[in-house]
Amino acid sequence: MSGAKALFGVDIGGSGIKGAPVDVERGALLQERHKVLTPQPASPESVVAAVREVVRHFDHRGPVGLTFPGVVVGGHTRTAANVDKGWIGLDAAGLFREALDLPAVVLNDADAAGIAEMTHGAGQGRAGVVLVLTFGTGIGSALFTDGRLVPNTELGHLELRGKDAERRASSAARERHELSWPQWAGRVDEYLDLVEGLFSPQLIVIGGGVSRKHEKFLPLLKAREAEIVPALLRNDAGIVGAAMAAGA
Ligand code: BGC
Question: Is 241 in the pocket of ligand 1 (CB under 6 A)?
Answer without folding.
Answer: no
